Amino acid sequence: MTDTVTYRTRWADMDPNGHMRHSAYADYAADQRVVLLAKWGYGVARFAELRLGPILFREETKYLKEISIGEEIQVDGRLASAAADGSRWTIVHTIYKADGRVAATVTVDGAWLDLDRRKLTLPPPELAAAFSTMPAFEGKSQ
Questions:
Q1: Strand pairing of 5-8 and 72-82?
Q2: What's the distance, CA 84 to chain centroid?
Q3: Is residue 98 part of a domain?
Q4: Distance from the Cα of residue 22 to its chain's centroid
Q5: Taking Cα atoms as reference points, which of 121, 116, 56, 118 lies closest to residue 91?
Q6: Is 13 helix (H, G, I), strand (E, B) or coil?
Q7: Eight-class DSSP state of 20
Q8: Which terms in the Gene Ontology molecular function aspect does this entry carry (predicted)?
Q9: Is residue 42 exposed (0-12), middle (13-18) or buried (19+ Cβ within 10 Å)?
Q10: Spatial separation of the C-alpha atoms in residues 99 and 93, rounded to whole Å
Q11: How far apart are CA 132 and CA 51, in angstroms?
Q12: 10, 57, 101, 108: most buried, per Cβ within 10 A?
């Protein structure tokens, strides 16, 4: 796994049944994307400066193994597809339990939004190039 981020689940991540709530999976996937973008030099301040932001069109989560409070999880993101110009992309995040078993996959389809025009736009060439360095997702999400 590359660009993997490790987290410890929190009380706020849990539902009344004692396992991780559905939206927490999406939160961890989103955080892994933010960490990766910042690593590439595109943190929140840089996006604000560019008046650019990532947006999602679709998010799908497949739940495979239960996650409980206080568990250590790892989240990675792999590129399933991207337009040649970097305008649209699909990332598959895999959420692993501490023992390496896959707990869930979160698949997102996204693009870039010009924050002033409120229209889709192309990313800077450096950001599009950075996406091409992302490890490829191979196969079907679980």
A1: antiparallel
A2: 20
A3: yes
A4: 15
A5: 56
A6: helix
A7: B
A8: fatty acyl-CoA hydrolase activity
A9: buried
A10: 17
A11: 22
A12: 108
Residue 112, domain CATH: 3.10.129.10
Q: Say if 126 falls within a structural domain.
A: yes
Kindly give the confidence (pLDDT) of every residue in the chain, 142 residues in length, as a single tens digit, with 9 standing for 90 and above.
368 999 999 999 999 999 999 999 999 999 999 999 999 999 999 999 999 999 999 999 999 999 999 999 999 999 999 999 999 999 999 999 999 999 999 999 999 999 999 999 999 999 999 988 999 998 765 4
Decide: pTM greater than 0.90: yes
Q: Is residue 90 part of a domain?
A: yes
What is the pLDDT at residue 138?
86
Nearest-angstrom CA–CA distance, 45 and 113: 15
Beta bridge partners of 20: 14
Q: How big is the chain, counted in residues?
A: 142
Q: Can you tell me the distance from the alpha carbon of 50 to that of 25, in angstroms, rounded to the nearest whole number?
A: 29
Backbone angles phi, psi at 34, to 5 degrees: -65, -45
Within 10 angstroms of residue 63's Cβ, the number of other Cβ atoms is 16
Specify the pLDDT at position 3. Answer: 87
Q: Which residues contact 142 (CB under 8 A, 6 or more apart)?
A: 62, 64, 94, 102, 104, 105
